[in-house]
Design brief:
Blueprint: H1 2-11, E1 35-38, H2 62-70, E2 76-78, E3 82-86, E4 92-97, E5 100-105, E6 109-113, E7 118-123, E8 126-131, E9 134-137, E10 142-150, E11 156-161, E12 172-179, E13 184-185, E14 191-198, E15 204-208, E16 224-228, E17 241-244, E18 250-252, E19 255-256, E20 264-267, E21 273-275, E22 278-279, H3 284-287, E23 304-307, E24 314-316, E25 319-321, E26 328-333, E27 335-341, E28 344-349, E29 360-364, E30 370-381, H4 387-394, H5 400-406, E31 409-415, E32 426-429, E33 438-440, E34 443-445, E35 452-454, E36 459-462, E37 465-467, E38 474-476, E39 484-485, E40 489-494, E41 497-499, E42 506-508, E43 523-529, E44 532-534, E45 541-552, E46 555-557, E47 580-585
Parallel strand pairs: 2-5, 3-6, 4-7, 5-8, 6-9, 7-17, 8-18, 9-19, 17-20, 18-21, 19-22, 20-23, 21-24, 22-25, 23-26, 24-33, 25-34, 26-35, 33-36, 34-37, 35-38, 36-40, 37-41, 38-42, 40-43, 41-44, 42-45, 43-45, 44-46, 45-47
Antiparallel strand pairs: 1-3, 10-11, 10-16, 11-15, 12-13, 12-14, 12-16, 14-15, 26-39, 27-28, 27-32, 28-31, 29-30, 29-32, 30-31
């Protein structure tokens, strides 16, 4: 290790242009994708409206250091500690591609991304460990502004940017409201599709809501709004760290203070581990910038998100707080059955087809029945999506972007046995939903959505602390709205504490496409034991659609004054609500 440290110390201050097989090739010119190290700890005051942090150069190029080290045969790479400003190339700040059997130690290394685009892309890497890296953004991918005026009907807000934050931009996006006295979310609403119309200097703006609910609006004069502010002249791709088609990836003690969308996103990976990773708000003392109010948001969306994993990830001792959406999410992709008769079905893929020949298919019918799994014999393209199929999609209770853009390719899926289902039935690969995952000893919450959201099975959710989530603390549920799969079996939910939430504590729930409650057997062999739920709405514990439920030792004490949003539970569950509810359970 010391030999590698001396080697990389030699590289500090040297401008390198290295071409590495399977890794990004970069220019040696500082004006074209270079990075400059900045001493940690200090920094000037930034005037109202934000701006780049101007600090003395220390020399060194983080991208070149990493590429030079990867060009060697050393299995362990030690990057020199320091704060590095890194510019993006091809919309990403760093890339690992095709790397195998390496340990990258970045203890004390802080990467400041200078555009609101991808921090780190990891593609087709195997048995790679990244340890200790801290990632932040300047300019930030969001801004904070104080409410100066609220229209009488509460449909519009006039706001002014706080000192030290980026100017407002003419975007349409989600807006969260924070109480500056507590630095926590005010009320339970996020205002989606809010139109921002900034003034000439970007320091004031008019925000117009699209989902006006005056009776639920809780914002007050002086509250602080947080809204996304893109700043990527070369174009933006989402998420801070994105891993695709990797196996044996380990993220250890990696910290994210900001992201343009998700924090850690993996897609099509196998047996990833996240150990001691942190998503949280940065303290004013640690960034050395004087702002008009401390940061209220960490990331713009989910903290940890796993999609289509062959074997699910392990999250151990991780923290995820104050992000703009879910804390931990594990799922696969459902695809939409346009015609399901006999052995050969016509299926519309969600974005891209993720089912493969030889895999097992989970089938969840439009009217809420789970069929026995079928083996997939073949998957082949099947022409264009027809007008009648488009009309069918338009009638679904589904995310608008998915309805209009996400179901654009048709496929011929052959099964090993004949079976008939109604149009609108969902199908997914049972081998690509994250089965075998674990979430242990994590601390999450203070976010606008769910704490832990899982659609996988053969896994464990144990000994976690979930605090202050606006929606459900732990939710096990397929989601027709997002076409997120699948159906959970052999699942243990044990020893978790859910406190101070504003929705349900734990819910195992499934609905068909027409909001009918799914039948027993949609979930199989679910164990819910020794959990404590304090606060939140009734039902604090909701268990539905299960065959083989084991439930004991749970303490459930919801807040009697808290009510669920109507859309959090179907019409089947709104009458006679109790702290603990079991429906369609065998």
């Amino acid at each position: 290790m010391m030999r590698m440290m001396r080697k990389h110390t030699f590289y500090r201050g040297v401008v390198l242009g290295v071409v590495v097989a399977g890794v990004w090739s970069v220019s040696a010119c500082r004006d074209h994708g270079s990075s400059e190290a900045v001493p940690g700890g200090g920094g000037p005051t930034i005037p109202s409206g934000g701006g780049a942090v101007k600090s003395p150069e220390e020399g060194g190029d983080l991208r070149a250091l990493l590429e030079a080290a990867l060009a060697t045969e050393e299995k362990e790479i030690v990057l020199p500690p320091g704060r590095y400003r890194v510019s993006s190339v091809d919309r990403a700040h760093l890339v690992l591609r095709g790397v195998r059997d390496r340990v990258i130690i970045a203890d004390g290394v802080e990467m400041i991304c200078t555009e609101t685009t991808r921090a780190l892309t990891i593609e087709n890497c195997h048995n790679v460990t990244l340890r200790g890296l801290t990632i932040d953004y300047d300019p930030l991918p969001f801004t904070q502004a104080r409410i100066l005026e609220i229209s009488p009907d509460k449909s519009t807000l006039r706001v002014a940017v706080l000192p030290g934050y980026p100017p407002l931009t003419p975007v349409t996006g989600s807006v969260e409201i924070f109480d500056p006295a507590t630095n926590h979310l005010r009320g339970r609403l996020t205002y989606f599709n809010t139109r921002c119309e900034p003034g000439a200097d970007g320091l004031t703006a008019r925000l117009t809501k699209s989902n006006v609910r005056p009776e639920l609006a809780a914002e007050q004069l002086g509250d602080i709004v947080v809204i996304k502010t893109p700043n990527a002249p070369g174009g933006e791709i989402p998420h801070a760290i994105m891993a695709t088609d990797c196996s044996g990836l380990v993220m250890e003690n990696v910290t994210l203070f900001a992201s343009p969308m998700f924090g850690f996103l993996e897609n099509g990976c196998d047996e990833s581990k996240y150990i001691g990773c942190v998503v949280g708000r940065r303290s004013p003392e640690s960034e050395g910038i004087v702002r008009g109010h401390p940061r209220l948001r960490s990331l713009n969306a989910d903290a940890f998100h796993s999609k289509n994993a062959r074997r699910g990830p392990a999250y151990e001792r991780c923290t995820a707080q104050f992000m703009g959406d879910d804390a931990i999410a594990i799922n696969g992709d459902f695809h939409f059955v346009a015609r399901g008769e006999g052995r050969v079905w016509r299926v519309l893929a969600k974005t891209r087809m993720t089912m493969r020949a030889g895999e097992d298919a989970q089938i969840f019918t439009y009217d809420g029945r789970r069929l026995e799994d079928r083996r997939i014999v073949s998957v082949t393209p099947d022409g264009e999506v027809t007008g009648d199929e488009r009309a069918l999609i338009e009638r679904q209770a589904m995310n608008e972007h998915l309805r209009r853009n996400g179901l654009s390719t048709a496929w011929r899926v052959e099964l090993d046995q004949e079976v008939s289902v109604p149009p609108g039935t969902l199908i997914c690969s049972a081998n690509r939903i994250g089965n075998g995952f674990s979430i242990r000893n994590c601390q999450v919450g203070f976010n606008r959505s769910r704490g832990i959201l899982v659609k996988a099975g053969h896994g464990v959710i144990a000994d976690n602390l979930i605090e202050g989530s606006v929606m459900t603390g732990i939710l096990i549920s397929p989601e027709y709205w997002w076409l997120e799969a699948g159906l959970s079996d052999e699942l243990v939910i044990s020893g978790n504490r859910i406190e101070g939430g504003r929705g349900m504590g734990i819910a195992v729930m499934a609905e068909g496409g027409n909001h009918v409650l799914a039948q027993a057997g949609t979930f199989r062999n679910i164990r819910v034991t020794g959990n404590t739920i304090k606060g939140g709405a009734s039902p604090g514990l909701l268990l539905t659609s299960i065959r083989g439920l084991s439930e004991e030792g749970n303490v459930v004490r919801p807040d009697p004054g808290m009510e669920l949003f109507p859309w959090q539970i179907g019409p089947w569950g709104r009458e006679g609500v109790q702290p603990v509810m079991r429906v369609n359970v065998e």
